[in-house]
From TrEMBL:
<dbReference type="InterPro" id="IPR000917">
    <property type="entry name" value="Sulfatase_N"/>
</dbReference>
<keyword id="KW-0378">Hydrolase</keyword>
<feature type="domain" description="Sulfatase N-terminal">
    <location>
        <begin position="35"/>
        <end position="349"/>
    </location>
</feature>
<dbReference type="GO" id="GO:0004065">
    <property type="term" value="F:arylsulfatase activity"/>
</dbReference>
<comment type="similarity">
    <text>Belongs to the sulfatase family.</text>
</comment>
<dbReference type="InterPro" id="IPR050738">
    <property type="entry name" value="Sulfatase"/>
</dbReference>
<protein>
    <submittedName>
        <fullName>Arylsulfatase A-like enzyme</fullName>
    </submittedName>
</protein>
<dbReference type="Pfam" id="PF00884">
    <property type="entry name" value="Sulfatase"/>
</dbReference>
<dbReference type="InterPro" id="IPR017850">
    <property type="entry name" value="Alkaline_phosphatase_core_sf"/>
</dbReference>
Amino acid sequence: MKTINQALILTFFFAAFLSCKKEVKTEAIKQPKKPNIVYILTDQWRGDALGYAGDPNVKTPNLDAFSKESINFTNAVSVTPVCTPHRAALLTGKFPTSTGMIVNDIYLPSEELTMAEIFKAEGYNTAYWGKWHLDGHGRSTFIPKERRQGFDYWKALECSHNYNKMPYYDNDNPQLKHWEQYSPFAIVEDANTYLKEHAKDEKPFLAMVSIATPHFPHDSAPQKYKDLYQPESLKLNPNVTKSSIENRIRKELQGYYAHATATDEAIGQLLQQIEDLGLSDNTIIVFSADHGEMMGAHGVRPFAKQMAWDESLRVPFLIKYPGIKENKGAVVNAPINTPDILPSLLGLSKIKINDEIEGEDLSQLILNPNPNTDRAALVMNVAPFAGNKNDTPFRAIRTKRYTYAVSIDGPNMFYDNVADPYQQNNLLDKPEFKTIQTELDNTLKEKLTKIGDKIRPREYYLNKYNYSFDEKRKAIPYWEFDEGTGEVQSPKPIQLD
C-alpha cells in the first residue's frame, strides 16, 4: 500500500512539474512587436530630381545611400499630383473621386477611416510633424485633436511655406509657435527626440514626418546650399526648350535643388537617428513626395503640377523594411500609386486590410522585388484649379513603360517612357501603335469602372461635392479664414445623373 501511495505521489509531482514547465513555456512565447513605421513625406519633389535617379545637377548623398539600402519604385506616381488629394489618398487608400478629396484646402471627413486610426487600433503610438493640408479650416487655424485623423503627438500646421520661420502648433496648445531654424532641420530635430523617447516602448509607433520642401518659394533656401548651384551651369532636360523664361527656370532650379540638398541633409539626420537607436531592424522607412514640379518642361511654367506628364506625376518612393537583406538596392519598375501605399504598409505589418480600401496591397512585390513585373496605375485630375484652371480634366494610366491619358475630348497623350523618357514623341493614333493604344484604353476603362468613375467636366464634380471656387482665383478660398469669413468645404455628395 505504501508503495502504491509513493507511486501516486511521485506521479502527481511529475505531472505538476510538467504542467508548470508547460505554463512557463507558454508565458515565454510572445507575439513579436509589430514594425515601427517612419514615413517621410516631402512636397513637390519630382521623381527624377535626385542623384540616385540620375539627375546630373542635384546633390542628395543621404538619399542616394538610402536607395542602396531600400527598394526603389522607379515609376511611383501621385494619384492626383497636387497636395490635398494626394494626402487624402495616402491616408485612406482610396481614390479622390471616392472620397471627394479632389482639390486643395478642403476637409477630409471624419467618417473616413485613416492610416493613423487603423494603426492606432492595432496598438501603435501615432505622431505627425509638418504640413498637413487636410483640415480645410484655413491654412493657419489651430487643428484640435478630434480633427487630426488619429494622430496623437502633433507638431504641425495646415499649410505654410515660410521655411525660415515656419509656424506650427504644439499638440493641444492653441497658441501659434514658430520653428527656430530652417524647418526641415527643426522638424527632424523634434522627430529625433520623439524617436529617442519611444525607442524602447512596448508599443510600436507610426511617425509621419511631413517636410514642405522643395516646394516653392525657392529663393528662401539657405544661401550655403544655393551657392552649390550656379544657375548658368545647370543642365536642363531636353524637353525644357529655349524660351524667354529660361533664365527664370534656371534661377528657380537653383533654389529647388538647394532646398533638395538641405532637405536631404535633414533626412540623413533622421535616418542616422533610427540607426543609432537600434530601430532599423524593426522599422519600415518610406521616403516619398506628394507630387512633382513641371519646371519648364513641355513649355509649362515653373511651380505647375496637376498634369499627366512625368515631371508632375512621378514621385520618388524608397521603402526599407525589417529583414530586407539581399533585396537592398532592388528596383521595381511597376508603378506604385498613392492608394496602394496604405494597404501595402498594412500588408507588411500583417494587419487586416479594410474592405473600403481601394488601393492594392503590393507587400509581396516589396518583399519579392522584380524589375520585370508590370501593372497599371490609375491617375487623374478631376477638377483642375488655381494656376491650372484652364486645363481640361483627365484620367490616365501609367505602366512601367507607357503613359496613356484621356481628356473630356478624348485621348490626348500616349508615350513610350522607355524609348522616350522625356515624353517628346506623342504616339497617339499612330498605326504601328494602334494595338497597344487599344489595350491601354481598355485597361483605363476597366480601372474607372472598378471605382465607379468616368471622366466628366470639372463642374460636374464641383456640383456633386458642393464646392464653391473663388471667382477670380478659381480655387477654394482658404484665405478668407484669415479675414474671419471662411467657410469649411468638405465632400457632401449629391446624387447626380
